[in-house]
Description:
alpha+beta; SH3 type barrels; single chain; 2 domains; 5-stranded mixed β-sheet; Nucleotidyltransferase, domain 5; 5-stranded antiparallel β-sheet; 25% strand
Amino acid sequence: MIKECEICNTNNPLKRKKRIKTSPVNVLKIVYADFVFINNRYVLVVIDGFSKYLWTFIGKDQSTEFVCDFLTWIQKQLACNIQILRVDNFKSFISPKLTQHFPEMKVKTTLPNKHTLNGLAERVIKTIRHLLKKEEACFRRRNNFERRMEIVTKNYNGTKHSSTGEKPKDLIFAFSTTGESYDPEDVVLRKLKLETLQFVNNPVAFRNMKQGKPETDVGIFKKIAKNRELVEIQTKDKSIVKKPIRKIRPIKVP
């Protein structure tokens, strides 16, 4: 009946208005944090609400001092302060020590049994668990837990996020207020590229798969590929192969 009545439709629309979601417009405007217990280790998971950049810190406890140390490290890395910290009601986050250490930071906690209010952290933790299982299945425990967590965090930050359409690492370090903040991985890679360019047209050693087994092979380093993490190497049969820049070793010519 209501659908057929023009007056009712005008004054009492059945369609609900969509709630407008507010999102931060600056790095460290809102930061989400939570602890997760994996492999008998406590992992502090911190996410920037603007870029969705992820930090993971492994520790033996969940102390407030541990939280303060790494939040301070994040602020120094980006040369700006955290404005709002959104966390649950865990004692490490609601301790007076935290507010004393960061007097300008507002700490907003979730209500008991309302974990959806810190939904971003919960979703990222779920993703971390999934990626760790995937990484473990691929490498069959050849890496220790610290190394696996490092790989998972790097891969997360290097993958386009569905909510922004950008890679978290590209978004967060392109939004530097001082112009001096860089992704540590990019700094290392840039130095490595400069060092490697000295060996153009010189022999390099690299790992190659032959009949399913890894073997050391030698080729001539030609150039760095368009993909900044790969280099082009000319093999003995004159073909060109691409290998990760971190996986080649220059051979000194006497």
